[in-house]
UniProtKB/TrEMBL annotation:
InterPro entries with a match to the protein in the record: LeuE-type
Protein name in the entry: Threonine/homoserine/homoserine lactone efflux protein
Domain of life: Archaea
Lineage, opening ranks: Archaea, Methanobacteriati, Methanobacteriota, Methanomada group, Methanococci
One GO term describing the cellular component: plasma membrane
Amino acid sequence: MIFETFLTGAILGFSMAAPIGPIGILCIQKTLNFGKLHGFASGFGAATADAIYGVIAAFGLTIISNYFIENAFFFKVVGGVFLIYLGINLLKSSKNLDITREIKKENLMLTYLNTFFLTLTNPMTIIYFTLLFSGFVVPKSSYYMSLILVIGVFSGSILWSGFLTLVSSKFSKKCSSYMEKINKISGMLLIAFALFIFSSALKQF
């Protein structure tokens, strides 16, 4: 029962992280620019936020989940603004790229916080977990099993980001001469995602 519950959580976490969106783009970009540690830090930030939402959904903390859902417009706007900020920074860095200098400047904690904050400002995550967790029978009184489920979610999310980081790292040397273009494309994609989020928020408003 413990293994099955952990595996269920891992599958949910993996499926949540797998679609390539803003988080995936940042994970790839950080790996190519600054190395595997920054790629892992990006994935760890997103996985931490996923685990927090997983705790809220698994333990039935409806007051907190309702707060995120009811204030979805605000969180979408904040997340969209932050995406634009990151996108513009990437566009600026692509014009004057010095990888060696940037590696020294880039802070691992900042890399972690970027993806943590972005994932946390996505209210759809809590809705996703709430809907999926409702389909699995975990006794409400069993806090231990709920915790195992959340650990599985965290592990699944880490597994995907680790895979994405390792694959990106394999191509880092080949892509080094194209980093200016890669950063520019990454920046434009992040801004495009932000505009999509704004559009979604306006429909909800």
